[in-house]
Design goal:
This protein is an all-alpha fold. The chain is built from 10 helices and no strands.
């Protein structure tokens, strides 16, 4: 049975990840993983983060259902479906410490790019074949880190998509990748009973964090919070690397 201290850390990780994801639409695993990957092995932490992320994304999709761009997101999803099986194979052959370092470096590079990027000329209209390739990369990264939205989010930002459109494209992709990866893990019998117990214990923190994050997104200046969130992502990623 999980101890009180472990339960507190688990709840804190899930709450913070859910709040950030509810506010920004992504990055649950980047925030929660900074704690959970120090508590569990990757094969236990990643499925737990995926399952929690599905819950947050379901809440986000419902709250922002009028902004969802299903047609554009479908191309990303089709590419991502090819990347997830490759990632799951790699996950079974990844050293725990190396996995944490790669995960942390991915988070740090992503956050640093979003925080300090120079002014860029936006790319032309999105190309379907390139979108499918980005989807493949997102599925590959997501299967290894439970963070499939990083690469598509940067891709949308490079094209100058407004935040509402970015979330409308990326959030269905994130939900689809997490669900597909979890189904594959279930078929491979990779979901342990301990993970299911941890997921059940996480539900109160997950619900509270998601609700407060969505409330903050609706009522608080998002630009101010966005920089704070990315700063926290950068720090958490660097801590995992070192």
């Amino acid at each position: 049975m999980i101890g009180l201290g472990s339960f507190a850390w688990l709840s804190a990780a899930v709450f913070l990840g859910a709040f950030v994801s509810g506010l920004a639409g992504f990055a649950f695993s980047a925030v929660a993983g900074a704690i959970l990957l120090h508590m569990f092995e990757p094969l236990e932490a990643v499925p737990l983060m995926m399952a929690c992320s599905v819950g947050v994304q379901a809440a986000n999709l419902w709250a922002l259902r009028k902004d969802i761009l299903w047609k554009q997101s479908l191309v990303l999803i089709l590419g991502g479906l090819l990347g997830v099986p490759v990632a799951l194979w790699l996950l079974h052959n990844a050293d725990s410490r190396v996995f944490q370092q790669v995960f942390g470096l991915t988070v740090a590079v992503y956050a640093g790019y979003m925080l300090f990027k120079p002014s860029l000329n936006y790319l032309r209209l999105m190309n379907r074949s390139r979108n499918a390739l980005i989807g493949f990369g997102g599925g590959l990264v997501g299967g290894l880190t439970a963070m499939p939205g990083a690469l598509p989010t940067i891709w949308c930002d490079l094209h100058g998509l407004p935040k509402s459109e970015q979330r409308g494209v990326v959030q269905p992709f994130i939900a689809a990748m997490q669900i597909f990866a979890l189904v594959m893990m279930m078929l491979r019998h990779d979901l342990s009973s301990r993970m299911l117990v941890d997921l059940a214990l996480s539900i109160p923190a997950l619900a509270a964090g998601s609700a407060l994050g969505i409330l903050a997104f609706r009522r608080v200046n998002e630009a101010m919070f966005r920089r704070v969130i990315l700063g926290l992502l950068l720090v958490s990623g660097l801590l995992l690397v070192v």
